Amino acid sequence: MSVGIVFPQQAHFSSPLMLKSGALLPVFDLVYETYGTLNAAKSNAILVCHALSGHHHVAGYYADQTENIGWWDNIIGPGRPLDTDRFFIVGVNNLGGCHGSTGPASVNPATGKHWGADFPVVTVEDWVEAQARLADILGIDAWAAVIGGSLGGMQALQWTLSFPERVRHSLVIAAAAKLSAENIAFNEIARQAILSDPDFHGGNYYAHHVRPLNGLRLARMLGHITYLSDDQMAEKFGRRQRPGAGSYSFDVEFEIESYLRYQGDKFAGLFDANTYLRMTRALDYFDPALAYDGQLATALAPARASFLVIAFSTDWRFAPFRSREIVHALVHNGQSVAYAESNCAHGHDSFLMEDAYYHAVVASYLQRITL
């Protein structure tokens, strides 16, 4: 049921992009992938927005990297909830990313050197604006749906506000209308781990031919804990000790320690620290209601899309009541919204998992979309 072999594509944009911060990005590239076929009316396109550590490779695999499966492959393909026999799916690596789109590791055309610390802070609003330019190139006037989990869900929500006439359905999964103070605190600790790494060099580590691997590794270890549920960690690892444990040292003694170190090392080898800083800051800044004295219903009033909001009972980082805040605001406005809550045991990461109930809800909703 996989989409099979896929190919990344690149779009170049020569028109400047004014960012929310006031910075101007003179030119930029976006790397993206597509799955399925765009119909003649161009009415069957779905945009998949990625979360913090995601990218454009959403489904399928590359001919020379058959083990590199797209991060949401279990939900995209023929007969799957995001059915490529019916829909044209687009995945994009956001601005500031480190998987081909213009970001801190890219070359600044003005200097001929890596952007590094000079790459501006980007926001969810900036990503949506850049994605809209990609839609223009693809000839897509309006998305049948925009879908995403976590930070991707925030983008799906922002699309309905930035371009209410260009998105017919918005699927907001395991997300919130703004971060809690606790979530901002987690992000700040992760950033401080990176900023305090001696190899960070103020964000210009590329020129020193080093990478702040220790800081990025610690940031990922911290983040990964918050993505899992306590029950899942207890079931998967418990207090099981490693062979040879009991040395009364600070070596790896418990299975959970080994797992976190593995995840940290793996992530640090693939991701860019400057990108991590910008992605977490984009999370912090997202708050559509800020300009409306905290009134979320007022902020969401311009939206014309129909909504599906999904939460997971074991997600303590984006708890279900945060999703219900979005639902309540939409209901207050008389806007079209459906809500589902899954008991998937994987915590915040549940949106990435092949949970039967969750997938059935998405499939049922998308099947009812008129193309």
TrEMBL record:
Reactions performed catalytically: L-homoserine + succinyl-CoA = O-succinyl-L-homoserine + CoA
Catalytic residues identified in the record: S150, D315, H348
Database matches in InterPro entries: AB_hydrolase_1, AB_hydrolase_fold, HAT_MetX-like
A single BP term in Gene Ontology: methionine biosynthetic process
Domain of life from the UniProt record: Bacteria
Residues marked Important for acyl-CoA specificity (site): R317
Function, in words: Transfers a succinyl group from succinyl-CoA to L-homoserine, forming succinyl-L-homoserine.
Self-association and partners: Homodimer.
Family label: Belongs to the AB hydrolase superfamily. MetX family.
Protein name as annotated: Homoserine O-succinyltransferase
Organism the protein comes from: Rugosibacter aromaticivorans
